[in-house]
Design a protein that fits this description.
11% of the residues lie in helices and 26% in strands. The protein is globular. With 133 residues, it is α+β, with helices and mostly antiparallel strands.
Length: 133
Amino acid sequence: MRTNPCLPAACVNSATSLARASPSKPPSTGRPTPPAPSPVTLPPSKPGSKLRLTGLVSHPIVLRSDYAQTYRPGHHNFVEDFVFDPHLEPGLDPALLAELTARNIRAVVGQVSFDQTLGLWIWGLDDRLRDVP
């Protein structure tokens, strides 16, 4: 299993930390779909948008909170980073949170560039990134 050398805690706390919620300039209108099968697709990210995560636990997880959906545009939006964290979603079913905890899943981290997914990882509760199976 290949892991990303940058631990999520280090990434989030660095000077290039991921911007929360609403970007100052909306991203492009479409996102590429990661290679199937995948637990996440990357839709347009706008304040108030919702995202559906499937394949992580027994039922789909819908994220509506801006805090559960983090977006960071790269230079001229050539590269875009995403963090989808179900643990920050208010009102999420405690049974789904228990399943995520049992599977060592904190969040899904993704990076896209134009029509290509550069990386898609699971951020574990142990602060390690691992490839999406």
